[in-house]
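Re: that chain you flagged

S.,

Sorry for the slow reply, it's been a week of failed gels. I finally had a moment to sit down with the sequence you sent. For the record, here it is as I used it:
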Amino acid sequence: MTDHVFFRWKDRWWSIAGDANEDAYAYYSDDLDGDWTAYDANPVIEGRPDASRPGGRPIVTDEGIMMFYQATAQFYGESLSAYHITDLTPVTFEQDRDPTSPLLEGTAEEESEDPSWNSLRMHHYDPWYRGEGGGWRAAVDGGARGMDGPNWAIGIYQIPEG
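Prediction finished late last night. Pasting the structure tokens below so you have them in one place:
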């Protein structure tokens, strides 16, 4: 399993993790340090290389959960997409793709001369709400071609409220 994300939802801890870039599995526990149970109908995502590998800390509110997934259909770190988990219990898992997806994209061109920090890859999205009037800020790691091969860096996005 790769890229586990953990979050608390309705008095239970949850983890979602990817495997081999096409599937994702869910696990739950009443205690973060306790025994974890595999979701009965795993994998919760099957055969979806354009959005199956977790790509950052989920946003959890009273209304629901927004998950971020990496696309790996053509290459690792191709893009990041958001999905709204609309139903999550030990026996149900449903989600819908956010219409703004993909949120961020890299490029498929390994030989790109573009020096931008995210010109080749987008990997992990970590959003933080800055309070009313402050909007969202997100740290994102990305990859670019450097003089000695691929380099990884962090970018910060300001997402205004509105």
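What I noticed first: The mean pLDDT is 80.

Talk soon,
D.
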